[in-house]
Amino acid sequence: MDTPDLIFTDGSIITVDPETEGATAVAVLDGRIHAVGGRELLRMRGPGTDVIELSGRCLMPGFVEAHIHPARDQLMFSESVIDIRPMVCGSADAVRTAVHAAVAAGGTRPLLCYGLDPVLHSGFPEPTREWLDELAPGRPLVMWQNSGRVAWANTAALALAGLSADAADLPDGHFDRDRFGRPTGKAYGTPAILALVGRIVGEQLDSGLLAKEHQHLAARGVTLCGDMGFADEMRVLTAGLYRRGLAKVRTRFYEISSPGLETICPLDNGDDLFRQIGIKIRVDGGATAATAERLRAMVRAYHPHGWQIACRADDHTATEVVLDAYDSVLREYPRDDHRLRLEHCGAMTPEQYRRAGRLGVTCSLFMDHLYYWGDTEPECETQCVRARSALEADVRISFHNDSPVTPEEPLRNMACAITRTARSGRVLAAEEAINLDQAIRAQTIDAAYQLFADDITGSITPGKYADLVVLESDPHSVAPEELADIAVHSTYLAGRLTYRR
Length: 501
Ligand SMILES: [Zn+2]
Description:
The protein is of the alpha/beta class. The chain has 16 helices and 23 strands. The protein has helices spanning 70-73, 92-104, 129-135, 155-161, 190-202, 209-219, 234-243, 292-302, 316-332, 350-359, 368-373, 380-383, 387-392, 410-419, 436-443, 445-450, and strands spanning 6-9, 12-13, 25-29, 32-37, 50-53, 58-61, 63-68, 81-83, 111-116, 141-145, 150-153, 174-177, 183-188, 222-230, 250-256, 274-282, 308-313, 341-344, 362-365, 397-399, 468-471, 488-493, 496-500. The protein binds zinc ion (ZN).
C-alpha cells in the first residue's frame, strides 16, 4: 500500500469543504490530498512519512490571489527600483526624501521610482521632465504611478529608451507630446511605459526577479494567483520559470486585451500549474480605457471562443457598461459556467450586484481600497467595496490586492472585510461586513472558482492538490482586528514546501 508522504496532525484544520469539516488530520500522497480525518490517519504512516504536528497552528487551503500583476510586482525586487508606494512612503514628503536619497547615493545606475499615488501623496506635484532632469542630471530617472497607468521620464531616460521624436504610439499605449510632436517624457498605458522603462529593468528580468516574486507570494501563503496583466513578452520568461521548477505558485493568466485574437494562444494551453484562461479589459481608469462600443466588440470577439473575460470597473458607470456588455453577449452566445469577471468593484451598488448575480458574473473585490484609501475618499463612508451586498445577491466573490498596488496580504483583506476598518481605525459602512468563514471562502475556494481551478485546489478535499498554508494561529481563535497579524508558518504547493518561516 502507498504510504503518505506527509501527515498533518494535532492542530486546527480549516478545510473549506463541508464534507471534511471538523477534520484534525490530513494525509498527503504524491502531491495530492490523500485522506482527511482524525488521528486514525497516523496508522497509514510508513518509514518515509513526514508527520507534521501542528501543535496550536492551523492548516488551511493555500490563499488564492485572484488579481495581481507579477510582471510589475517583480520589479519591486530590482536594484534599480525605489519603492515609493504609499505603504512604504506615507506622504509627499516621504516620497521626496526617498527620491533624493536614492539620487544622492550616487552612481550612474538608472532609477525607477515606483508607486506615486495621486491621492495618498497629495501635495506632490505632477513630475515634469525638467524637474526630473534637475533632480538627476544626466542620469535616467523614471517615476511610475502606483496604478501602473502613467509614468514620467527625464531626458536621459528618454534617450536610454531610444524614444526619438518620431516614436510611434503603441496599441493601448501612447506618449504625451509637445507642440512639435516630440515625446515629453510622460507615457500612458503599459505598452508605452514598458517602452520607457524596458532598458532600465530589462537586463534584470532574466536574473531571477520573477523567481523572487514567487518566493514572496509563497511567504504570504499564496498558492494560486490570477495574473491580470499578462503581456506576450512575459510568456517565455514565465514558462521558463515553470519549466525549471522554480515556480512556487500556480498561475492563471489573462492577456491584456488586444483588438484582435491574433496574440491569444489556443484555449487548451498549459497545465495545472500555468495556464491562460482569459483576457483582461480595462473599462475605466485612465486614458487607455475601452469605450462602451469597443468593449462590446471585444467581449463579442473573445467570449464566443471560450475565453473568460475580466473587466476592470471601479465606478458605477463603468460597472453598468460592463454588465450591459455581458448581458448582451450572454443573450447572443449563452454559456453555462462562463464565470465572467468584474474587477475591483469599489463603488458597485447592491442593485448592480443583483444584476451580476442573475447573470452569473463573479466579482473580485479590492478590500485594501477601504483600508488604505478609505480615510481619504468621502464616498467610502457609504459605498466602499460592498462585500455583504455581493453575497446577498449570490455573487461568488474573491479578494485581491492588485499587487503591486498594495502588497499581497490575504489576512488583511479578510480582516478588512470583517471589521470594515480603515488604516486610521475608522469603521466604514459597517452594514457591509461579512463573517470570517465567508471571508475565508473569498480568499480560497471562491477565488479558485473564479480562476477555473476549484476542481483541483482551494479546499482540503481528497483528490485535490495539497496546496496548503500553515498559519501560526487559527483565525477563529483571534479577534478580527488581530487577524492581519497572524504569521504564515509554512506554505506547500502540491505537497512541496515552498516557504518556511
Ligand atoms: Zn490590476
